[in-house]
């Protein structure tokens, strides 16, 4: 309510002829005061473009992220696990939809964004280019991948752009639920038969390093970080979030009775942090460039679904046009 | 609705008085389970993201129904089989679903046609079973009737959009109905098991008239034609399936079967 009232005042004052510099100054003041920027507010073109890119890529990640887990829906080993997995993938589709809506408030169509995804001109999270080879991967994804996502996303709940921040509040609630479910899958496996425990360990071995890569390149090599921080889009550095993730995860691995595949991992009493080995940044570069194990397959699946469904969407549109009068009459009645 | 089925005497060759009810519950449970499995195949492949959500939602509802029905069947059977033992431990000759639910998804029109037929059937079924003498069945029916109404509404809107949209939509939707209609009769075939269960089960032929009234109206409004198939599927309730089920089950069951006795 309070925010709405503010945007009213702001858009009224905007009608007076004001120099770009004055608009920019007011924008900076709003950011400094932590007043949320709303769709009708003036914003620098760079801020808008950065947000479109980030929100769209976040949305794409939710949509592409349905695939590695969708891969196990028909094969889940119990009906309870199958139900949980379907619900989770459904949540991810819902998150994608919220985020596309948030991006649309910045003046771009979802159709255009999907096109950018399908033609490889916009990216999605590198993690979803890894294959899900066993059931235990459902646990590792929930625990590690969703865990890393939460670390990244909780600060975004306070992002300076209102629609994005509000979407993140809803998304983070569901993500933390998913993360607990993933932990529970691994816990059951690691306390099950020797074969199940080995399956759990193998999944953690494969997903550990890619999860650390989800925080992005080291701060020194991160191109967008400084500007995003100044705009209140990003609140913590990549390395800081990565360190928090490691500190949170190591004790959880111990509780699971599983090891993490890093011989250099050790507790540093002095700093109060877990120190970890070197991440293979060449691998991250490769995967981001499109040369990961599943990049081609993931985009191809999206593109095929979209192309195969074109006649369905066309027919729905033709039906809506044909019946627009009836619909209006019904609504008016 | 006076004679509880459980007291209606043993089934032919049966050893327990509850056996017809077990068979009945397995039939309805397998319908829901197998169709949920088919709908699960759509997720990440739907024509738009909203449909990924909707199909997942319907699959979840059906899976929930299956779990209640299989759990109840396992309890009445008294052989220590839970929902997972029944879902993952039986072979295709022991599955009792109607053939309709096991046919492949095909294109979106085939899936939509199958969903219209099945959810309209389930609306009538659950509506009648709300008065079942079996408390679990009547309890489930009270909830499931609302779910089926939502599924039917969703399918109805798509049949209209496809049938009365573009020429290609019309052609494909008619082909979808043609593909699915041979499996309709089996839903309403008189059934020995249900016949043993007066007061507990529903006599399938009694559901046909209200089902037809609803479905034929939708097909007509969609400017489509109700097909008149020359062959008809039968036998699913006796474990005589199409060749499709033998491919669906190994995919669904392999992990569970590869780790006997494991918990998940």
From TrEMBL, chain A:
GO MF annotation list: phenylacetyl-CoA 1,2-epoxidase activity
According to the record, the residues making up region (Disordered) are 1-21
Give the species this sequence originates from: Cellulomonas carbonis T26
- What is this protein's name? Phenylacetate-CoA oxygenase
Query: Which branch of life, at top level?
Result: Bacteria
GO CC, one annotated term? cytosol
What GO biological process terms does the UniProt entry carry, in alphabetical order? phenylacetate catabolic process
Record's Pfam families? PaaA_PaaC
Coiled-coil regions listed in the entry: none
Q: Where is the composition biased (Basic and acidic residues)?
A: 1-13
Checking Gene3D superfamilies in the record gives: 1.20.1260.10
From TrEMBL, chain B:
Q: So which domain of life are we looking at?
A: Bacteria
User: Which residues are the signal sequence here?
Assistant: none
**A biological process (GO) annotation for this entry?**
phenylacetate catabolic process
Question: Mind telling me which GO cellular component terms the entry cites?
Answer: cytosol
* InterPro entries from the UniProt entry: Aromatic_CoA_ox/epox, Ferritin-like, Ferritin-like_SF, PaaA_PaaC, PaaC
Q: Which PANTHER family match?
A: 1,2-PHENYLACETYL-COA EPOXIDASE, SUBUNIT C, PHENYLACETIC ACID DEGRADATION PROTEIN PAA
The record's NCBIfam families line, in alphabetical order, gives:
PA_CoA_Oxy3
Write the protein's name. Phenylacetic acid degradation protein
Q: Which organism is it from?
A: Cellulomonas carbonis T26
């Amino acid at each position: 309510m309070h925010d709405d009232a503010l945007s009213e005042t702001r858009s009224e004052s905007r009608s007076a002829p004001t120099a770009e510099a004055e608009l920019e100054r007011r924008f900076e003041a709003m950011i400094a005061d932590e007043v949320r920027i709303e769709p009708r507010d003036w914003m620098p073109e760079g801020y808008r473009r950065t947000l479109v890119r980030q929100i769209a890529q976040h949305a794409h990640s939710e949509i592409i992220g349905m695939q590695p887990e969708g891969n196990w829906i028909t094969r889940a080993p119990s009906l309870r696990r199958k139900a949980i997995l379907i619900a989770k993938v459904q949540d991810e589709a819902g998150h994608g939809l919220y985020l596309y809506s948030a991006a649309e408030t910045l003046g771009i169509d979802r159709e255009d964004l999907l096109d950018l995804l399908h033609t490889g001109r916009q990216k999605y999270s590198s993690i979803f280019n890894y294959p899900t080879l066993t059931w235990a991967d459902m646990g590792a994804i929930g625990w590690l991948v969703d865990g890393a996502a939460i670390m990244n996303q909780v600060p975004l709940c306070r992002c300076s752009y209102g629609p994005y921040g509000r979407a993140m509040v809803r998304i983070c609630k569901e993500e933390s639920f998913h993360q607990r479910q993933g932990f529970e899958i691994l816990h059951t496996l690691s306390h099950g038969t020797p074969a199940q425990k080995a399956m759990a360990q193998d999944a953690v071995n494969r997903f550990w390093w890619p999860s650390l890569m989800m925080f992005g390149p080291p701060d020194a090599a991160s191109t967008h970080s400084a500007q995003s921080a100044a705009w209140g889009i990003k609140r913590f550095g990549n390395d800081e979030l990565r360190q928090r993730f490691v500190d949170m995860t190591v004790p959880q691995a111990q509780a699971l009775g599983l090891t993490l595949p890093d011989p250099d991992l050790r507790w540093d009493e002095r700093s109060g942090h877990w120190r970890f080995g070197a991440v293979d940044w060449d691998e991250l570069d490769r995967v981001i460039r499109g040369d990961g194990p599943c990049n081609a397959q993931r985009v191809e699946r999206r593109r095929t679904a979209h192309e195969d469904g074109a006649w369905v969407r066309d027919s729905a549109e033709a039906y809506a046009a044909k019946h627009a009068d009836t619909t209006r009459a019904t609504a008016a009645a | 609705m006076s004679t509880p089925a459980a007291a209606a005497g043993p089934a032919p060759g049966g050893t327990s008085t509850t056996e017809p009810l077990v068979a009945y519950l397995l039939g309805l449970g397998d319908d829901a389970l197998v169709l949920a499995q088919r709908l699960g195949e759509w997720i990440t492949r739907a024509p738009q993201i909203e449909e990924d959500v909707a199909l997942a939602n319907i699959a979840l509802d059906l899976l929930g129904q299956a779990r209640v029905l299989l759990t109840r069947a396992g309890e009445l059977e008294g052989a220590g089989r839970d929902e997972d033992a029944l879902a993952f431990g039986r072979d295709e000759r022991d599955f009792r679903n109607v053939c309709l639910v096991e046919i492949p998804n095909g294109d979106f029109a085939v899936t939509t046609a199958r969903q219209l037929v099945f959810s309209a059937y389930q609306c009538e079924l659950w509506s009648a079973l709300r008065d079942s003498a079996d408390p679990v069945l009547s309890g489930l029916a009270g909830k499931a009737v609302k779910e089926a109404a939502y599924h039917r509404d969703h399918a109805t809107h798509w049949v209209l959009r496809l049938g009365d949209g573009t020429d290609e939509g019309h052609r494909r939707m008619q082909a979808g109905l043609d593909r699915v209609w041979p499996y309709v009769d089996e839903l309403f075939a008189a059934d020995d098991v249900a016949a043993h269960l007066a007061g507990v089960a529903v006599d399938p032929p009694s559901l046909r008239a209200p089902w037809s009234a609803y479905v034929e109206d939708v097909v007509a409004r969609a400017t489509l034609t109700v097909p008149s198939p020359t062959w008809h599927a039968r036998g699913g309730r006796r474990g005589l399936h199409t060749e499709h089920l033998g491919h669906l089950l190994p995919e669904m069951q392999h992990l569970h079967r590869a780790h006997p006795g494991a918990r998940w």
